[in-house]
Specification:
659 residues, Rossmann fold, Arc Repressor Mutant, subunit A, 26 helices, 22 strands
């Protein structure tokens, strides 16, 4: 057996293992497959890193956390001189192809894969031809329908592991910090035979607290005060992309060094933000768990949950990013009871019903890609992904490559799909949310509550959380959060280099009186004079020397008045080549909305030179604005294209209308 102590010291620069690491590595090297349940910050990554060096060949790490992949790659190559690569959707095909070539030549020791890669027929066939010695399943609770974060794409992992196990020298290592007894039993059933190593879930250096608020302005005031009181690096978890931007903008306005991060940002921007935060270029980051769960910054002094997470297990995992250096750290939950609605929406979005399965099976009567299935069914995109994975599992759908496209086709199997696991999942998520809300309202030791929920039988009161100390967190801030929220510019997202970030006057999420009035009367005639004045001021702020290019519309009664009010040069060369089949608001998801307008806008004449303001009454998915930008670029326009609208709305997904 290789000398793992020598590997630890010479390759990784550590003098000794943490509790449980040596036993786990020795089990793997002796040929034992292993489920390792350890607390956050305990060094689970080192188990597979040392094992990869000792075993030779290729170690494949399956992880849903793209930010973690980037962080691990940097550590492995720069600090430990271990050749590693990754294949994921944040990279372009050239980068992925380069990694594939290096792995095929045996030049990599560790390969990180997003779980969705296993859904690809071509990728799966390629992987099975590699010299894989160790398969690592990070966030292994995602395999189990009893886990708090079950992911359909993880279903393929069990089948992949069984195929690889036909090789005598291949091991499986499943890693998680959040598997209670029921979840662990389900993971073991899917990966059997497998041994379980479980450690205490205690994080004695983290002091937990809860602060109750009412409304988002209260949250912003508290965050401002907290950052003034906390001198170290902070991670602020937000439930939605928009909330990360609102939080970061407000706190920047209050003088704090902070940035926003979420999965909707361009890959290069996400990489730069992660790198800058790790380097200490700004003190705090407001992020969804797209970054939060992948960040490995040992000196994070505080993790603040701006919104209530969906379960105690998710909360334990996320707050555990704090204090990974072992020094004192803080975990704060900002609790507004109304946050329950966000998590209930997430639960509903992912929960398929029998008619969803019927719709996908009907749509797959002819071969379709996943995007075509979403467009044909009109279902919420998350539900389509869930349903397709389940129908493949139960052999109602098959998948194959056709002309470099992966398509799904009904197999012809008769009968109904078994939906019991989704009934389990709905129960798990509903109970998980109820437990999280009880934690937020509770008066008992907070760390003890977390550990007990995770099945830690050694749990006792921590003695240093808010309830244990009998302290209620009270912070004061003089920031005018209410006024700032009411007057905050509404961002219209850009799109790559095609469309710059723009602005709108009103936001459907705020439901202001001005927004309601505009949407009710937009087809009848001109907007209110104050709305026209505000739109003109916004246009001059965005592009005082730009030309206004209005999008064609047959339903906006105030279009002519809005154009005239802007006081800027006008160019009216955009037209519908063919009118869309339906109004965007009547469609069911954004795949349908994109298809509804694709290629239908045309340009008459030569577009104006310089910057353009693309004017529309309101935008939802952004599909029409992007098509307008494409048409202008194709016609030769080389300047900046900036959207400006009276309102920005959020379409429902899976049904028509505004959220």
């Amino acid at each position: 057996m290789p000398d793992i102590d020598q590997i630890l010291e010479t390759r990784f620069g550590f003098q000794s293992f943490r509790a449980g690491q040596r036993e786990a590595i020795q089990a793997l090297l002796s040929g034992q497959d292993l489920l390792c349940i350890q607390p956050t910050g305990h060094g689970k990554s080192l188990i597979y890193q040392v094992s990869a060096v000792a075993l030779g060949g290729l170690t494949v790490v399956i992880s849903p956390l793209l930010a973690l992949m980037r962080d691990q790659l940097d550590h492995l190559s720069r600090r430990f001189r271990i050749a590693a690569g990754t294949i994921n959707s944040d990279q372009d095909e050239t980068e992925n192809d380069e990694t594939i070539a290096r792995a095929s030549k045996g030049e990599l020791s560790i390969l990180f894969l997003a779980p969705e890669q296993l859904d690809r027929v071509d990728r799966l066939a390629w992987l099975q031809g590699l010299d894989i010695r160790l398969l690592v399943i990070d966030e292994a609770h995602c395999i189990s329908t009893w886990g708090h974060d079950f992911r359909p794409s993880y279903r393929e992992i069990g089948r992949f592991a069984r195929r690889l196990r036909e090789r005598a020298d291949m091991r499986v290592l499943a890693l998680t910090a959040t598997a209670d007894a029921r979840t662990a039993q389900d993971i073991c059933k899917q990966l059997a035979p497998i041994e379980v190593h479980r450690r205490s879930m205690d994080r004695p250096n983290i002091s937990l607290n809860v602060s109750a608020v009412s409304g988002f302005a209260d949250k912003l005031r508290l965050l401002d005060a907290f950052l003034h009181s906390e001198s170290g690096c902070c991670l602020l978890y937000c439930a939605t992309r928009e909330n990360t931007e609102i939080v970061a903008e407000y706190l920047q306005n209050q003088g704090h060094s902070i940035a926003a991060y979420h999965a909707g940002m361009p890959p290069e921007r996400k990489k730069r933000l992660q790198s800058d935060f790790l380097a200490g270029d700004f003190r705090a980051i407001a992020a969804t768990n797209a970054l939060g769960m992948g960040i490995d910054k040992a000196d994070l002094r505080a993790v603040v949950h701006v919104d209530v997470p969906g379960s105690i297990t998710a909360y334990y995992q996320e707050v555990g990013r704090a204090g990974r250096d072992g020094l004192p750290a803080t975990g704060l939950l900002v609790f507004d009871p109304d946050d329950r609605r966000i998590q209930e929406y997430f639960i509903h979005s992912a929960q398929p019903v029998p008619s969803d399965f019927d719709a996908v099976r009907d749509a797959a009567a002819e071969p379709r890609t996943i995007t075509e299935l979403k467009r044909a069914t009109g279902l919420h995109p998350t539900r389509v992904t869930v349903v397709v994975a389940e129908l493949i599992e139960q052999e109602f759908l098959g998948k194959e490559m056709q002309k470099r496209r992966q398509v799904y086709t009904a197999t012809g199997r008769a009968g109904r799909a078994d939906l019991s696991r989704y009934q389990n999942q709905h129960t798990v998520r509903t109970q998980g949310l109820d437990a999280m809300l009880a934690y937020a309202r509770g008066t008992d030791c907070l760390m003890h509550t977390l550990r007990e929920h995770l099945g830690d039988q050694e749990s006792t009161p921590c003695g240093h959380c808010g309830p244990c100390r009998g302290e209620v967190l009270e912070l004061e801030s003089d920031g005018a959060a209410d006024d700032w929220l009411a007057n905050r510019p509404v961002v219209v997202p850009g799109y790559l280099k095609l469309l710059a970030e723009g602005r709108a006057l009103f936001d459907s999420g705020r439901r202001s009186g001005s927004f309601v009035d505009f949407m009710r009367h937009r087809s009848a005639g001109p907007p209110r004079p104050e709305t026209l004045r505000a739109l003109a001021a916004l246009a001059k702020k965005l592009g005082p020397d730009y030309t206004v290019v209005p999008l064609p519309s047959s339903t906006w009664g105030g279009r002519a008045a809005a154009i005239a009010a802007l006081g800027l040069p006008i160019w009216t060369g955009l037209r519908w080549r063919t009118a869309p089949d339906a109004r965007q608001g009547t469609l069911l998801n954004n795949d349908q909305r994109r298809a509804n307008v694709r290629g239908l806008l045309a340009v008459d004449g030569t577009p104006p030179e310089g910057g353009i303001l693309l004017l529309d009454d309101y935008t939802g998915s952004g599909a029409t604005l992007r098509e307008a930008a494409r048409a202008l670029k194709k016609a030769g326009h080389e300047g900046k294209r900036v959207p400006i609208t009276v309102a920005r709305v959020r379409w429902r997904l899976g049904r028509p209308g505004i959220v």
